[in-house]
Protein 1
Amino acid sequence: MEELYYFVQVATLLSFSQVAQSMGVSQPAVSQKIKSLEKKMGCQLFFRFGKRVMLTPEGKLFLAYAENAILAFNTISKTLTDKTIKQLTLAGDEHFLSILLKTLSDLDVQAIEITNSRQVIELIENDTYDIGVLWGNHSLPGLHRVELSSNRLVLAGSKRLINTYRTSGTLHLIRYDVAGAYKNFLENFIQTVGLTPTRVTTYNNLNLIKKAMLEEIGLAVISTDIIYDELHDGSLEICEFPETTLSIKNAMIYKQNHPQIDQITTLISKIKQSIKTKY
């Protein structure tokens, strides 16, 4: 790379002596660098006329490549040594993080699944993680909130079990064992609609809940984004309550004075576009 720097300087000043003076080295040292580069390239890069030099046709062609190589080297060198650039970390809901990592597999992030909203907020406030993913309408001093989506809460399951519930009132309810805002929204829906299950099965994993729904173990109160694919392929349906419409919002939070603010806003913009495309 050093030889390329010397070459570009000589090609710019067209003088070995001026380059030597500007770089604080001897003229023979400059000449040796150019000769070494010409030997490696297998061609003459300069015509020499006493103290004057001119680029050969090969030298003119090589100059563009040399300048681009130096620019690329400087760019990657700055990136690797810039301490403000680092891998971002996310903490939040298992379902939402799984969607992000699946649809945006090129994201350079580290993620941890945490369903408790209060714990997520604490991790962001004490700088343990950079970005938090939350359910609900959180507004906290010092934290910036970006809403990602708003989805309906519904009672859903197979068509057969929905028909059974409508005709007989028999309800085997599958419940999500979760803390924080999502749990509060679920409880509010159950009370508002007036669900009185005859049996309850609890799971602490959303994938297990979807599996139980598909295997017709019961009906579940769940947000539509979680069963988006199943609703569209017809494997699950919604048991509608026309008089009740409840929605749950999810958002990302980060500290307003975060040192990687540009990285964070770029990442969130990409995530929002992905969510818009999917839903």
Protein 2
Amino acid sequence: MLFSILLLSVLFNVICICKIYQIRFRPEGLIKEYIKRFKKFWKVISAKRITKPGRPKISEDIKQIIKKIYLENSGIGGLRVWLIVSKRLGYEVSLSSVYRELRRLALEYPPKPPQQWKTFLYNSKVIAMDFTTVFLETSKDIFKEIFILIILDHERRRVLHYNLTPSPSQDWVVQQLKNCFDELYPFKYVIHDRDNIFMHRVRDVLPTYFQMESKSTAPHSPWENPFVESFHATLKRELVKRVVFKDESHLRKRLQEYIGFYNKYRMHSGIMDSPYGLNLYKDPPKNNALKKLKSVPV
């Protein structure tokens, strides 16, 4: 009886010791304990190393340069980026590291189309033309619709030509283009909508007579011709909604005065200047003695 109790106590102690050291009575337990001890040993050995093994990581400066090149040059390849960074700028970086960084940037900043519509309008010699309408009261409760053609330069937001008529036609639009450009054709593209007055004879005459290419916007997409649409809104806000026009000649006179003011003096937020480039703040008056503005009745 005493022997059996002693044997049980010894077995109990052995089991406790095995649990403490996570030893199992199977080969898997022994191998697991061996791997654990080896990891602890390798961790101590690795901590003594001065330099870490493998290729050094890219510095933050190089990452920022690669990011700037990637974002400012859509569609650029990894080889060109590596040539710019390593050959031109003189940084030590491998081609595979550049490719890896570009893959990371492509996930964070998805690539854009090679050329957006906004970029095309900004880089090209472009003019835009479109019609806007004004209603004149001919008699009591009877109004007549007047069409105003505007031809606008995209680069300086300058109104190149304007005219108005109650009944526009394709021949009339072609004649307005001839009056606008005479014999000088410094522009390459003409942006217009898909109105029938632009889509037939005018579109055929532009490349043959004016050496300009016609670019029509998508159907029901006025935002693709933004500058001339913005001018129409400005014209109606600052002139049409403030004046009651008596007849067509009155409208023509006020329109001439407004467009002269718009081209010479009105500051445009898009170019931070007036369309003709007149800087009103170049020579300020002495002692800031600005003259008092006086209103002129229409």
Protein 3
Amino acid sequence: MNFRQLETLYWATRLGSLIAASERLNATQSTVSMRIQELENEFGIELFDRSQRTARVTPKGREMARYAEEILALASSMRENLAAPSSLPGLMRIGVAEVVSATWLPNFVTNVRRQYPKISIEFDEALTQNLIDGLESGDLDIIFIAGRAPGRELTTMSLGFVDMNWAASPEISLPNRRLKARDLEKHPTITLTRESHHYEQIEKWFVTGGARFRRPFTCKSLNVCIQLASAGLGVTLVPAEFYPQAFVEKRLHILETSPEMPPVEFNAVYRDNHLQSAAVVLCQLAQKASSFRQLALRDKA
């Protein structure tokens, strides 16, 4: 019995299949099957029922997986507390929001490579709900998202706040005053798709302002939102500070609104299962690398 076998059993049980475990561990299906069979031979029990089309974990398999989780957690704790930081190994899958990719992600990677050279990282850029789904399914180890992720077994660490600005092309005719939701409802709204915090935030703003959120153009990239809005096709919501080019070139201008859109908190989120000590240190590095604004006490009041 070895750690690779126990890790394979743990992930196969948690994810519900040997195929999912092979993808999570970046191993071939034959390697995963061999590790499970080696455990079965050593203990003389059946861990997975292979009589059906898809192998399913047996009661004994679930029981052994609980022991495997305890052993792996203890090993992770020992490594975290006793090993030199530079020796921390592992492959970490991190899901990131587009704004993170466009700002401080390179600085984060540079710090990881310098302090933890044995950690490998795979990034997946996606919308908020897709990233949350990936964390819950075990496809991702950490996510950097806008807003918060629901769940009792999740640990959240703030990465700071981003100011969001309504914007439109100068070609769009709008009243020369602070704009309300009813002013903007007359124009198409360009937003990210429903899986995003962006869409949820915009919809809430319109509803709170007693207006209808209608005729939205949806896409999966803030850069696309900016291009569509620059062409005069509608109004959009963007963090102007981090996408300045369209404003410098006067293709877009910021709209003063009442109420203003509240800043969005970004968070690093990981599962609190104690099996991956690297998750904690990477989230701490993300906090240090983040260029997002930290709210002062008066801002929070």
Protein 4
Amino acid sequence: MKEKKMLIDIVNYNNYRNTIRCIKSLKNIIDEKELIDFVVVDNNSSNNSVECLEKEFKNDVNVFLVQSKTNDGYSKGNNLGIQYCSKHNNYKYISIVNPDTYFDQNVFEKILPILENDDELSMASCSVIMNGKWDIYKQSWRIPSVSEFVLNRSLLSKKTTAPLVYKCYKGNIVQTEVIPGSFFVIKYDDFRQVGFFDENMFMYNEEIVLGKKLKSLGKKAVVDLGSYYYHNHKSISKSEAWYNYRYNFNKALHDYDISYKTREYVCKTYYDSKGLIALKLVNLGNYFMLYTKHLVSYFKSLSYEKK
């Protein structure tokens, strides 16, 4: 097996254009002499993602394409890529990268030396500019308490945001507990020790669980506020949201159910079921709000039709 510096792991689902753009941006900032591989896991896309990715990278020996026969979510998709490439190479670091991210500076030049020089550090990232905006609450956060974890997903109350006070690690590098899953670098051995991503979670809250598991090992995470990457996260307008409540309500319920089942699993597994009853009550309240919005959107559409 070959010794390599890092594996960059990207999960694609019907998003090959962004995936290709992301990889090209990374290749533009990385020295070709670095022993760095890319793996793209296609999560059973329903479009021609696989064909387009194969065509784009067929001559690139450092880009591996793995096809999953099913879409098992973010956690299992990322784990699949790591497992596939780890059969052939030994990696010191794993970088998790979302396909809708973009890089125009070599963030690894700053992140990797930080991890290299401190055994207590497991994970590092840098500032994220999301949809053209720098928001301090998007950079990282602490592990939520039970009440924060339960109430922050309630549709009946405003999201509570805890004051952010970062411990200065060194210069403009700050210590934190939870790093966004859109981009980070983690030591392979530490990632393996915590079992990589929990595959019981299809989507959402993976960052919180990883932060809790690393903290239980006495490990730390940091964010370099002096470097950045772009995350062009798809968002919808209020009018689009109301349209979905009216005409795509079954999908809205399906997406919410996935989110709730993940939160319920996290509550049971990583919070020792504390707050589980409150979470179930919040779930009932959320269903009430979802169906209320569906009805309101129905009457709104009737009023528009009359006009």
